[in-house]
Predict the structure of ATP-binding protein.
Amino acid sequence: MMKEQKKIILWICITLYFLKSKQRKVHTLSTGYEIYVGKLDNKEVDFVVIDGNNKFYIQVTYLLSEQSTIDREFSVLEQINDNYTKIVISMDTVNRSRNGIIHKNIKDFLLEE
C-alpha cells in the first residue's frame, strides 16, 4: 500500500474515533466529554478525553506492524505517570497490550457499547 493511502486510512480511523466520541457525548450530555490533543515534551497524545472525573488517553494508528511504530505509539502513554486508562487503537487483530496500556482493534472498538 502506498504511503499516501496509509495516511488516508489513518485519518479515517481518527475521524471514526472522534465521531464515536461525539456520539457518546450526545448520550452523556449531562456530564459532557472534553477532547484535547495532549503534549508531553516533544511527543503528542492523539486524544485526551475527560468525562467528569475520568480521563482517557488514546493513540490511534493505522497498523502496529513495525517496532518503531509500536514504540512511538506506546512510549508516550508509558511516560504518563497516572492511573487513568490508556488505549492504543489500530487495525491490527493481534492484541499488543503492554504495561497496562490497552490495545484495541478499531472495528472492535467501534462496535463496543
User: Anything to note?
Assistant: Confidence is low (pLDDT under 50) at residues 24-31. The beta strands are 33-40, 43-51, 54-60, 85-90, 102-105. The domain at 3-111 is CATH 3.40.1350.10 (Trna Endonuclease; Chain: A, domain 1).
